[in-house]
Here is the input.
Amino acid sequence: MEPKDFDREIKYAEKLGATEVDILWTLGEKYSASAVKGKLNSGVYSRGGAIGVRAVVGKRIGIAGGTLEKEEDVMKIVEKAVKVAKVSPEDPDWNSIPTGLKAKKGLEIYDKKFDELSSEDLIEIAMRGVELLKEKGTLPISAEASAFRSLIQVANSNGESVYSFGTYFALSLFAKVKENGREGGYSDYQDSRRFSSLDPEKLAEKVAKRAKDSCNAKRVDTGKYEVIFEGRIGGRLLSSALFPAMSAESVQKNRSPLKGKVGERIFSENVNFLENPHRPWDPGSRPFDGDGKETKRYYLVKEGILRTYYYDDYTAKKEGKESTGNSHRSISGKPRPWINNVVFEPGDASLEEIIQETKRGVLICSSIGYWLSNPVSGQMSGTISHGYLISNGEIAGVVKGVAFADNVYEALKERLIAIGKELEHSGSVLCPPYKISGMTLAGDRWENFISYPFIFSDMKLPKAIILDLDMTLLDTLPRFFEIYNRTREKFGLKKLSKEDFIKRFEEDSLSEDIPQEVLREFWREFRRRYCDFISEEDHLIPGALELLKKAKEKGLRVIVTTGRECLPEKIWEELEYFGIAEYVDGVYTLAMGREEDEKVLFYRRSITELAMKEFNLKPEDVVFVADYLPDMECGRDLGIYTIGVLTGKKRKEDLYCHGASVVLKDILEVGRHLGLLR
Amino acid sequence: MEEVPDFDKILDKASKLGADFCEIRYTFDKYERISIDNGNLSEYSSSYARGVGIKAIKGGSVGFSSTTSLLLSDLLEAVERAVKLAEAGRKYSKKHEFEERPTERVTVQSDFRENPFDVPPEEKIEIMKAINSSAEMEGIKSRITVMGNEDSLRLYLSSDGAEVQVRTITTGISHISIAFESGKLERVSDSKSYCRGYEFIREHDWEKMAKEVSEIAKKAVNARCPPPGTYSAVISPRLIGLLLHEAFGHASEGDEVYAEASVLKGMLGKKVASEIVTIYDEGIVEGGYFFPYDDEGVKKGRTVVVDKGILKSHLTSREMAKELSLPVTGNARAQNFSYDVLVRQTNFYMAPGDMSEEELIEGVKEGIYVTEKGSRGGEVNPVLGTFTFSGGFSWRIKNGELVEPLRGVTLSGMILDVLRSVDGVGKEVVVNTSVFGGCGKEGQRVRVGVGGPAVRVRRITIGGM
Here is the structure.
């Protein structure tokens, strides 16, 4: 592989009428080996060259390109380019072909190791990957190793020419695991311009661990989460949703939301994007761009402020500027600006530390469909194919199949709460892990997550409706207040004022100052006393009577469950008192439950299960209506369609996060939702 | 056809070097792209890729070598490399075996009257400028119209005497309009391609298409995004085609099944979709990509993949047919000379049902009508059967009527759940190919056809912003 002299071709173009010409020439050589299901599939060697010619006649431009078979081919391509140029309309913005070609000296982009490699070496590396995956207890589905080297040259009719040699190596592994009837899989790759950067051991370790983890992957509930992107997927998202908008071409053509924003703060001040095509051995590093102009190291965004767009020669001249060395060009197309090697500058925290500081979040490691993100609007989205659930600073599960969506400008400006230190690269971006708060994940039970006049469209009338009593059917808050204070007194705690009580009730912090060791005992006492009396202020929640009547009329079973710990007879008496006993078929109180089932206070799975068993109901036959958070969990855990109502003064988001299928204002709305009431 | 090297000498050489079997793929793809941007020609480029790929099998081990050079000396060197690679891999190689197929000697080409490459460039530019300007209207910030022309020649030769040559000419136009209103930008696109000559460009009303795109973009920019949720949905023919191709078609590819990377492994004969769903993969379909023979010289007819909800077949190459004990279905494809074949779809589409699109929509109380206009495709994880997909401009359905435009619709879920919840299939099938895009797999891109009738699904998860 040697650079060429293109004088003859350029002269020929000029003879045909071209006023300016530039030529891109590439020559490449590649070894690769791939394995499938643990066995070598094939070894491959390929070699090829291609040439692209941009011919200019005045302000008319023509581009032609093709693969190189023999010398005469170049001339044919030159002819074609000039021919097209002659008949094209003038480009009023055309200035001239790029001149002042220059290559940055001393870049580390060619690894001499390539010269010693043979096909056998690549076969060995792929098979080493396979062996490692086997050793680690996984099924090696596929492995591929490749080594590539190329010569790239740009020459022009100004008599200038630049060229460079580069190498590129890659290894990818894909493993599957079958465990107790479950299957999981993971694939990943490494790539670098330096051979020794490939580390099959490390890659296999990661792939095997994650393949095993993914056997237990689940969806999470729809809700807002703190979301941490690992560097690779984080970088890919930015490549799809953000960096196209920084292209001078997008801006000049009115396709960028960043138009007119140079000098403005667009992101949090921790955000720095450094274009650095001179970093040793990065796949995106190179000494000159597709125009033959020297690449540059500069900030696109510094301390959250957009400093510049990135330019190729054409877009730069249009604004009377210097190219930033960002021309990307294939042999057959017009050069276009694109980033070379952008570094999202890292912070101080390790990924582990970021996880430790996350209360309720998801770490996203890989995603499908991230490239569907939209740079015109800034929407970034995708579906998690591998991730981890984080609860109170610890990994608490494996996540897949959950969609995420956000707006990159809002996320990096308002809700970026951490930037990690471990850089990972993907294509043209080096990116550390970063954390965004309040991102919407759409997983399970996300019907009507956002209040919207859509209803659960396939809702058939259920066979039975299970209703919580206090604050769902009956407003007994005055009684709650009285009994709560009496219980406090008994446990030697100061009584609360009505105001404080309401505040704590709404915040769900009534347990706050009760000593941990007596907490269960406290609430048990409270629940036992709840049937002691009826406050004069207690009343039916509006719509309760109508709903129950109608449900009965339609032949639904109506079941009441309650967290009170008293005999069902007591409840029946009370239902009688409020005039609704005749519409109720069954009553279940926490006194009928098994204490050990109360995984969290007021969790009532066992009595709900008992009710379903006695009434011979399957989860799909039932709708559960309640107002308190553990009730939502109970419904979710049993796979019941669970409606949260806001009469218990809990926040809508919290009800959703604990598992509500849908959250409605009150029992009246429930009636409408089920089509029972108008 | 232009002069080609003497390939018999290459096959002879392979046999002399001890290869048990050798095949040669010579491909010559010409491509032309004309792009008009806001009224101006922004690009007129033409290119071609020509070269030779040689696959040698020796002792069950495979070596592959390719070159862009057509000099006999370089080709002889390439065949030597291929055989050597096969020898080098023997220690680790899987034993490659291939199902028998008839050895055909045939030359075919797609129907065309006027070769688009023979039409003077200035004439093409003129038409394109007119189309681009017809999309100009208030509120439209940016307009891009692109014409693509392709002349693809594939010649397959093998040491057992097959010689199959297929030439396909495809042409098409795509248009994108970007609307801007009160700080919001929205992009909508549409395109049509056909395996015919330039007569297709002359016959079609492109200005109408471009104008419609602008009108929709203006509507879309003000539309709301639906909240994430699970909805009933009616999916347009072109979008169901894309969805089927990505989420189901890939899983039906034999090499994925063999590698245990498909959710359909072990599902032959089982119910994978609602009983009103039938799916074909077929080489020649009206509106689809012209693909009469695959890249192993096998005739591509109609493969019934799903019959009334039951999975009937996977798609196979000769090797995968042997591995999976299935018939050879003619689905071995390589992007061009520089790649070995993979199992790929051709024209993968759903068969018609008996409902009109109106009837499908009428049956939805609350849901979404999702179209492809502006869709940017999707991605699938074939192992899990999960997919995520961008829908185009859409409508909210209420009580059987389209009541409100929507944008930013993303479909996601498990394909088998979705296909099992299909409860209505339209009667009009539309199959389309594209001269601009295609299907990507392991770094290889091939042209395909996708389509189907409009389809109604009971439950599909829709993400939005």
